[in-house]
TrEMBL record:
Signal peptide: 1-32
Keyword Transmembrane helix assigned: no
Source domain of life: Bacteria
Comp. bias intervals (Low complexity): 105-130
Organism placement in taxonomy: Bacteria, Bacillati, Actinomycetota, Actinomycetes, Kitasatosporales
Coiled-coil intervals: none
Keywords, in A-Z order: Signal
Alphabetized InterPro entries for the sequence: TAT_signal
Name of the protein described by the UniProt record: Lipoprotein
Region: Disordered, residue numbers: 25-45, 91-130
Organism from which the protein derives: Streptomyces zhihengii
Length: 186
């Protein structure tokens, strides 16, 4: 008997197709015009600043995963693959290699890549993880959506290589949000 509705496989296929479409659009080879990556005279410095800001956002999201698993240890196994992917995203954006801790390691919130709290400090990392595990997952899904939207909004300011990475990370974040809520009504 076949399934009806949206399945995880269909959601991931749709996300992959969206990422491929975004990547194709970003690699056209002809410049779309001048970048507006900031007021810095050196484009390389502006690109580094953008990378640092985006890596800090992904690192803050990693802290949100840690806060949820610290508050709800029963969710650790379910969140481990998504947390590992977020760790890889943060590492890719910062230009380092990530080695996520084992799923059984105690989780603790991590500071941002800059050592300071991010400008958009998430409520979960601030210590207000909901008592209900389902509500905590919904809050984490909202954080995934927010970071995904921030990465998508930064596409126009990014150099082509970074734009391709951002499109992929944003698509993965959207898939994570779906998987965290399993399509619950928002």
């Amino acid at each position: 008997m076949g399934r009806t509705g949206t399945t995880r496989r269909r959601a991931l296929l749709a996300t992959g197709a969206a990422a491929a479409a975004a990547l194709t659009g970003c690699s056209s080879g002809t410049p779309a015009g001048p970048r507006t990556a900031g007021t810095t005279a050196a484009p390389a410095e502006a690109a580094r600043a953008l990378r640092r800001r985006l890596a800090a956002r992904s690192t803050a999201l990693l802290g949100e995963y840690d806060a949820v698993t610290a508050r709800h240890p029963a969710l650790t196994a379910r969140l481990a693959p998504l947390r590992a992917a977020v760790a890889e995203h943060a590492a890719a954006l910062s230009g380092t290699r990530a080695t996520p801790p084992p799923a059984s390691a105690p989780a603790s919130p991590r500071p941002s890549a800059t050592g300071a709290a991010p400008a958009t400090a998430p409520a979960v990392a601030g210590g207000s993880v909901p008592d209900d595990p389902a509500a905590a997952l919904r809050t984490l899904a909202a954080a995934e959506r927010r970071v995904s939207a921030e990465h998508t909004a930064s596409l126009m300011d990014a150099e082509p290589e970074l734009a391709r990475l951002l499109a992929s990370v944003a698509a993965a974040g959207s898939a994570h949000a779906y998987l965290l809520t399993k399509g619950d009504a928002r």
